[in-house]
Design goal:
The longest helix is centred in the C-terminal third of the chain and has 25 residues. It contains 18 helices and 18 strands. α9 runs antiparallel to α13 and α16 crosses α18. It starts with a strand and ends in a 30-residue tail after the last helix. It has three domains: about 130 residues, Rossmann fold (3-Layer(aba) Sandwich), CATH 3.40.50; about 190 residues, inorganic pyrophosphatase (n-terminal core) (Alpha-Beta Complex), CATH 3.90.1640; about 160 residues, Diaminopimelate Epimerase, Chain A, domain 1 (Roll), CATH 3.10.310.30. It is elongated and about 90 Å long. It is α/β, with parallel strands linked by helices. This is DHH family phosphoesterase. GO terms for molecular function: nucleic acid binding.
Length: about 500
């Protein structure tokens, strides 16, 4: 049961208390005005006549879930806030600034309270609506988890992160630093997509790139953003103890973490992190706000795919701090020659059955060329669903796109490739990766190309068969699987861009 504590009760505090009495949970008001306490008691509201600035008073209390500091006086509220934060470091605190605050007072309130209520905006119902909700409870739990960490936090994105993962990691680092915790935004693999590189470079985002065998000893705790399981598309040890998980994708297996926030209703993990930034009272840095908005736009396909009201709300919250000129620059990067070559090979090598086109492009230099090639095939006349794939080292990477209303690519790729690799994504954008151990044992390029030609048949047949057997446009297909080529991988992909 939620326990709410009100410290001080002035003209703003009284309507807050009235609103709180209508909500489930326990309530206690501590005020230094005897007549007010008697009035509250007469109305069956639990109240104590005590000095809320007295450390001994706070010391004798059990830990509440939420604290409201609501005296009319700025100096009293400031002292109360300082002592409440010292006594309850992990509790969410909403503090009323009072009517005589100077710059020093404002800085003191901002550094200690999760939300500061300015007198000009102190409407009791608005305060309650913004704090006493499930999202507020999430923020309380996240603050508590961060406060338990003794040392440095590693915030890990999925491999080859997309804008949503990058922005979410940077935002969680900001939140960690807000509560005095050192943290780094980390990833394995490469940021090779032109727009993703442009985003990191133009916004000067501070990221740490890990190699597979790099030691993790610098970190005492770990967080996962935009994916939910260690060792699944992040090269972390599968047995790693995870402290925090924040994601918007449906989990494909058990999710272990001290704090877990999985919201399938959100169109992007950046949406969830935007809400946390607001809850923690973090001022929006233009770089972080721009990254978050771009992450939301990419994952929702400019608010047309799996978008929710919370995505629009997050975007409107971020917009005043967003650098629109930087977004324009991010969206117009130079397309490299390697990408153009992959697109050309995809067009040349495509096999089309009715409205479905599949193309193998051979060896990859830049795996992020695949989704761009899949997009180009989708733009061709008579094509509504595409799959493009290529190999790099011992891995085959796949990227799929669709504008057919009766095709769910995420489920289709899972049906086709989860038994021999890892796959997942959205209805109109998905990806997969398959580990091909036999490629690593090939002695020369001709042998690898010969092996890949067999793999092409397997992938093509599996995809067409998965399309044919799921509800959708009938496509003639046949299945000649050669599962001995594949080394099953327990991983999963979060979306097409990270495939």
């Amino acid at each position: 049961m939620v326990f709410r504590l009100v410290l001080g009760c002035g003209t703003v505090g009284q309507p807050i208390v009235e609103q709180l009495t209508t909500r489930d949970g326990r309530l206690l008001v501590i005020a230094d005005t005897a007549s007010l306490v008697e009035t509250l008691r007469d109305e069956s509201i639990p109240a104590r006549h005590d000095d809320p600035t007295d450390p001994a008073v706070l010391e004798g209390l059990e830990t509440p879930d939420e604290i409201f500091i609501a005296s009319d006086r700025t100096d009293v509220n400031r002292v109360t806030l300082e002592r409440a934060r010292e006594r309850f470091p992990a509790v969410s605190i909403v503090a009323y600034l009072g009517g005589n605050a100077d710059e020093a007072d404002r800085e003191a309130f901002e550094s200690r309270a999760d939300r500061v209520i300015d007198p000009s905006a102190a409407l009791a119902a608005d305060i309650i609506d913004k704090t006493a909700s499930s999202s507020a409870k999430n923020a309380i739990d996240l603050r508590a988890q961060l406060s338990k960490i003794d040392g440095r936090l590693g915030v890990f994105m999925h491999d080859n992160p997309d804008p949503d993962a990058i922005a979410s990691a940077v935002a969680l680092v900001e939140i960690a630093e807000r509560v005095g915790l050192e943290a780094d935004a980390c990833y394995f693999g490469e940021i090779s997509h032109q727009e993703n590189r442009a985003m990191v470079n133009l916004l000067e985002l501070d990221l740490t790139n890990f190699e597979r065998d790099d030691p993790l000893g610098a970190y005492d705790a770990f967080a996962l953003v935009d994916h939910a399981r260690p060792g699944v598309n992040d090269q972390l040890p599968e047995e790693l103890h995870v402290d925090i998980v924040i994601d918007h994708h449906p989990p494909r297996g058990p999710v272990a973490g001290e704090f877990v926030d999985l919201r399938e209703g959100a169109g992007a993990t950046s949406t969830i992190l935007t809400e946390y930034l607001v809850r923690f009272g973090v001022d929006f840095d233009s770089r972080v706000a721009t990254a978050l908005l771009y992450g939301i736009r990419i994952d929702t396909n400019d608010f047309t795919r799996e978008v929710s009201a919370m995505d629009f709300e997050a975007a409107s919250t971020l917009l005043p701090a967003v650098d629109g000129a930087k977004i324009d620059q991010i969206e117009e990067p130079t397309v490299g020659g390697d990408t153009l070559e992959v697109i050309a090979r995809a067009i040349k090598n495509r096999e089309q059955r009715e409205s479905v086109a599949v193309a193998g492009v051979g060896r990859l230099g830049d795996r992020d060329a695949l989704p761009q090639a899949a997009d180009q095939l989708l733009a061709m006349e008579g094509v509504s669903t595409t799959l493009v794939f290529g190999f790099r080292d011992e891995m085959v990477f796949l990227s799929a796109r669709s504008r057919a209303s009766n095709v769910d690519l995420g489920e289709t790729l899972r049906d086709a490739f989860d038994p021999i690799g890892s796959a997942g994504g959205h209805a109109d954008m998905a990806g997969a990766q398959l580990e091909i151990g036999i490629l690593g044992s090939a002695d020369d390029e001709d042998e690898r190309n010969s092996i890949f030609s067999v793999i092409e048949e397997v992938i093509t047949d599996r995809f067409f068969e998965a399309i044919r057997t799921r509800p959708g446009t009938p496509v003639g297909a046949y299945d000649r699987t050669s599962e001995w080529l594949f080394q099953p991988d327990e991983g999963e992909q979060n979306d097409g861009e990270s495939a």
